[in-house]
Design goal:
The chain is mainly alpha-helical. The chain has 16 helices and 3 strands. The radius of gyration is 23 Å and the shape is globular.
Length: 362
């Protein structure tokens, strides 16, 4: 498989893709229009916001962007995977490994003191101008490959039209800014049947444990699959987070990382969001958590100017979601084997619950 991909390699240069993005974003109103309260845009995360705007609007599902996970402005390459349609798991794994190996080797060669051997290496070296050789070594261990999300985000915008009026009304009733509904785009692209590997379910991606605090979730019924009820739950959780922190960057991050986790992390830095995401190294406080608020701001910007990021979208039809069942039938057993069947079902259900619990704790 590797030889075929190498022979068909169509990586785009950093300069070319930067020009494309610059031209596209130049058409949109200044991003600084989104600085209005209550959602501040700290200068320290502006590169992250721009990165996610590009992921949502400029990079397709077959584009793989290799960056420094802590300095996403260091975009080493945008590699376009040959072919059409959604890439397979094998293709995604290959692209991820290929790009990490390639740029890991380049960074380690530069760390050894060698002069850049070609334009590609000179482009990487320029990103570290004035920094010690050790910076290359650290960067080689800090690579992240991000797949483009343009198609999914576009569909999410069309799907959101169906849900937004009701969701925004729910949020206003809870005393929340209606723009917060955009968080559902980050969570699931407004896909009601979404299920994550961590056991999160629905448009608002509640795990079973957190969800049971706000909704009815049993073996035979799940409110997380009823968008209105899950939206009410999301509003309550976000309201609770804001009441605790009095700060939307922290309250929104807590939706992803957990209220207790953000309370501990932000407490170390006096409630300073920017300092927290820059320095905190607690358990599972990784790339996704550090970028969650930036993703929200980027999604809000794209939604506000969607006709400029996706020309013609105003003429496209709303995607009306198919009904999703929230009730599950109880198993039926014959009288003859009722006792034996019940014991088997009880054991199986316990095992299934155990797997969910483990997934949620990771």
């Amino acid at each position: 498989m590797g030889k075929n991909f190498f022979s068909n390699f169509k990586g785009r240069s950093i300069a070319a893709i930067s020009l494309t993005i610059a031209l596209g974003v130049a058409l949109a109103p200044s991003a600084r229009c989104d600085t209005q309260l209550p959602f501040p845009r700290p200068a320290s995360i502006e590169p992250n916001i721009k990165f996610w705007v590009d992921v949502f609007t400029a990079y397709s599902i077959r584009d793989f962007v290799v960056v420094d996970r802590d300095n996403v402005w260091r975009t080493y390459q945008v590699y376009h995977l040959p072919g059409e349609g959604q890439p397979t798991r094998e293709e995604i794994d290959w692209a991820n490994a290929y790009l990490k190996i390639k740029y890991g080797e380049i960074l380690n060669r530069l760390a050894s003191g060698r002069e850049p051997a070609n334009d590609e290496e000179r482009g990487v070296a320029a990103m570290f101008k004035g920094e010690p050789a050790a910076s290359y070594t650290a960067a080689a261990q800090n690579l992240r490959v991000q797949e483009g999300l343009r198609e999914q985000f576009h569909e999410g915008l069309l799907r959101s039209r169906y849900y937004r009026p009701t969701m925004e009304r729910i949020f206003r009733t809870a005393g929340l800014p209606p723009e917060l509904v955009t968080l559902a785009q980050v969570e699931s692209d407004f896909h009601g049947g979404s299920r994550s590997s961590a056991g999160a379910v629905g448009i608002w991606q509640f795990t079973r444990g957190t969800g049971k605090q706000y909704m009815k979730i049993t073996r035979y019924h799940d409110d997380r699959l009823i968008p209105d009820r899950e939206s009410v739950a999301a509003a309550k959780l976000l309201r609770s987070n804001y009441d605790m922190f009095g700060d939307w960057p922290l309250a929104i991050t807590a939706y992803n990382y957990g209220t207790g986790g953000v309370a501990r992390a932000s407490g170390i830095y006096g409630g300073d969001y920017s300092e927290m995401v820059r320095h905190y190294q607690g358990p599972r406080f990784g790339f996704a958590v550090k970028n969650y608020y930036s993703e929200f701001l980027a999604a809000m910007q794209v939604h506000r100017y969607e006709d400029q990021y996706f020309p013609g979208i105003e003429d496209e039809d709303t995607i009306r979601p198919a009904p999703i069942k929230a009730d599950f039938a109880r198993p039926k057993h014959s009288k003859k084997s009722h006792s034996h069947s019940s014991r088997i079902h009880h054991t199986a259900s316990k095992r299934h619950h155990s797997k969910k619990t483990v997934a949620q704790s990771t």
